[in-house]
Structures are given as structure tokens and as C-alpha cells.
Amino acid sequence: MKRVKIIASYDGSHFSGYQVQPDARTVQGELQKALARMHKADSWNATGSGRTDTGVHSLGQTIHFDTSLNLPENRWPMALNALLPDDIIILEASYVGDDFHARYDTVGKEYIYRVETSKVKNVFKRNYCFHVREELDLEKMQKAASHYLGTHDFTSFSSPRTAVVDKVRTIYDVSIDRSGEELTFRYVGSGFLYQMVRVLTGTLIEIGKDRMNAEEIPEILEAKDRALAGPTIPGNGLYLSKVVYSEEELSKLLRR
Amino acid sequence: MKRVKIIASYDGSHFSGYQVQPDARTVQGELQKALARMHKADSWNATGSGRTDTGVHSLGQTIHFDTSLNLPENRWPMALNALLPDDIIILEASYVGDDFHARYDTVGKEYIYRVETSKVKNVFKRNYCFHVREELDLEKMQKAASHYLGTHDFTSFSSPRTAVVDKVRTIYDVSIDRSGEELTFRYVGSGFLYQMVRVLTGTLIEIGKDRMNAEEIPEILEAKDRALAGPTIPGNGLYLSKVVYSEEELSKLLRR
């Protein structure tokens, strides 16, 4: 058996998230079905770097699985894409050591959150951006975002519905860029808690609307109280963008 | 009764085209249902500038209907959008004279066709661009497109499945722009025959791939034989972009 690492892009609009569930269309479910067919088996296991929720997209979800097939690395994407539905695309594949683990070996992740600010919603962006009618104050949001940097307990900025006990994470980089009516929020961190990027961005948007102040962020972090942060905004604007497995890959992300 | 003219944008991905059909989800069907609800009637008629096929999108489909309601112009989009599914958005509404007709009064239309040229398909563009794996020769396509300009019988460049007898149309402007991996083909004309933009663009792509020559276009037009032109490419890259009702609006389009 050889272990394969693949990078998958998917449009989350019509998936009940990444993780396999009975009677629901999931990314892992579709991938495992394709792998089972390739291996002429009843089922086949694939392990992702982590879950993504309903409606959340991927530009770089990373997954591993073991195989008995002897396919050259560069044939794997084509072979899988031929069996996968058209809202999942395998971008890359490589053979890795038996000890590589897509979930446990992550060193960092990059997430992107896209927001459209316009009076009239663009019908083509409805599944791909969170729509905000008001203009947002970019400078205020950037000031607030700088308070996220570093190592903090992010209890206030994540969903309480989780079994995870240690809520300390490190954010290495946050940036917000505007291009026309679109804002792109980019986060690089050691890892992210359940719904964390959606609460971090939801809170920045409240600040951009002048309903909260940038200076409240340190107090909210300190309080460890989810009720104090902004709303959990929808999954449709969220993209798992990159998963890195070495300090070298991480520093490349941070140099961008 | 007053006549209302509206401009509708829609994502054609999940519609069986514009025109109402029994047992199929259509743009006109959804709009007429919303109008019937607003007017507390069993049905309500709406007339579009023309059909769009399955999967074809709109940035500016223009539609008229009559109303007994006394709503200010600027309330119409909001009122309709509240009742319409989220893949149709009404952008504008205005009261027009009783003699205005969205179909018969058109002076010109603009269509856009988007093509993605890349080795690996972008999963987010699968419903919005036609994907071509090869690079296309922009200069050759532009040279070929210039032969489309002017008044011609477009029998060779449209589907024979139509009741329309007069196949003479005028193309006022064609342009092709590249932005990264995306090509945008733009056509302004007096009117377009069934599947005409898809055949015009499909033929340009054959020329961009060096499978046909720009110099063949005049002969193909002359021959009035559909078999000589390139393939009818899919509807997913096609957008009805603008419908104009006066020479003034048309010249504004051409000055862009």
C-alpha cells in the first residue's frame, strides 16, 4: 500500500459540508465512492485536513488515502476527476510517506472570506460571497484585525458547539483587500476552531459598519465569552484556501 | 392598467431557459408566479425581449407586464425580489407607455460569451464559462471576428431548428478581450438567431485552435450551410447582457 496526498477544490454550494454523513451529499462521501470504484472495493477511506461546513468552499483542501494501485502521480487527478461530480476537482496528487497524516500533520491553514458590498446583490455571487448592503470602513476593520494577530484563547470567537477543549490558536497573518465592490479577508493561522473565521469576519464587519469598535477586540478575547463577539456570518463566503505541512510551506504563505 | 418595464439578471444554471414551459423551472414561469401573487390573481402575463436557452444567463433581460397596482417605480424591484427565488434579481423598473413592447420594440442586443482557457478547470466557473484546455490565438480570432461585422444572412451560423425565415441580421460590434485565463467575447447586433452567438463563438474558438482559418468566414456566410461553421458550444458561457430600445441607447453601447 502506498499513501497518496491530494489537493481538492470544491464548490460547497450543494454539499452538506466535507465530512461523510449518512443520507447527505458530502465531499468526503463522493470522494470515498470514487476511490471505492477505482479500487473495486465496497468502501475506501480518505482523511481530510479537517471539516468544512455546509456551503463552505475549498481552493486547497488536503486529503490522504492509501492505495494498492500503481498509478503514476500525475495520473491520479485525471483518474479521480473522471469519477467525481463536477463540483469537486482534484488539482494535484503526490505519493507521501506512510506516516503522513492530512489532519494531524498540519502546521498551518489559510482561509479566505469574500464579502460583496453593494446596494443590489449580484445574482452570480449569491453562493460565493456574503452580501452586505452598506459600505464598510476598511481602515477601521484593518485596525481591528491587527488585534487578532498572535496567540490567544479564541473562545469568544468560535462556536461553543464543539468537543475541543484547548481553544488557544495562533494567527500569523490577517489582511483585508478591496477590489471594486468585493472585500477579501485572508487569515493564516496554526489552526482554526469551529466557525472561527466566520465569527472573526462577522465581528470585523460589525466594526466596518461602526456598530462595534476596534478597541473592543482585546477585551472580547480576554472575556472568553462568545456572546460578546459579532455574529457568525454564513458559510457561502468562506474558502479553505491552503493547508501547509512544514515551516517552509508556512513561511512561503506568510511572504505572499 | 399601467405598463412596467423591468430589467432582470438571472443565473441560468438551474433554469430550463427563459420561456415558460409546463413542468419545467423557467425564468418567465417564476416571474409570472410572483406577479400573480402580487396581483392576487391566478396567473399574470410577462413578455420578455426574447428567449434564453437552458443554462444561459442574463445581466440585462428586459421584460414588460401590465399592472393595476399603484407602486412607485423604485419599489417594484424590491417587491418582486422578495417573491422571486434567489437566482433571479430585478435590477430596475420603470413605467412606460402602453405601446411599449419588450420584444417587438428592440433596436439591438448585446451578448457576452465567457471562455476559460486553462489546463485544469476552475470548479467555480463550471456553470459560468465554457472551458477550453488549449490556449487560443487571440489575434487570429479577432481577425476572423471582423468578418462577422455588417449585414449578412447568418443561416450558416445558427440552428436550423427555428421557424424564423428571414436570417439576415446586422452585427454592429464584436470584440474579444483577454484577462488572465478568461476570454470575453462581446457581440452587439440588431438581433440574434437561435443559437447564433454560440455558433459564432464556437467557430472563433476553432480558428483560435488553428483548426479553421479566419479567411473561411466570408465563404461560410455565403454558403448558407450550417454544416460549414464550427460547433454550437454550451449555453453555460453565454450572457444576454443588454437590450436596447432606441438608436440613442444603441449608440451608447457602441461607444463603450
From TrEMBL, chains A, B:
Substrate binds at Y111. Homodimer. One of its GO terms (molecular function) is tRNA pseudouridine(38-40) synthase activity. Signal peptide: none annotated. It catalyses: uridine(38/39/40) in tRNA = pseudouridine(38/39/40) in tRNA. HAMAP family: TruA. The lineage of its organism: Bacteria, Bacillati, Bacillota, Bacilli, Bacillales. InterPro entries: PsdUridine_synth_cat_dom_sf, PsdUridine_synth_TruA, PsdUridine_synth_TruA_a/b_dom, PsdUridine_synth_TruA_C, TruA/RsuA/RluB/E/F_N. Residues 7-105, 144-245 form the Pseudouridine synthase I TruA alpha/beta domain. Transmembrane segments: none annotated. Keywords: Isomerase, tRNA processing. Its EC number is 5.4.99.12. It comes from Evansella alkalicola. It is an enzyme of class 5 (isomerase). Formation of pseudouridine at positions 38, 39 and 40 in the anticodon stem and loop of transfer RNAs. The active site is at D53. The gene is truA. This is tRNA pseudouridine synthase A. It comes from the Bacteria. Belongs to the tRNA pseudouridine synthase TruA family.
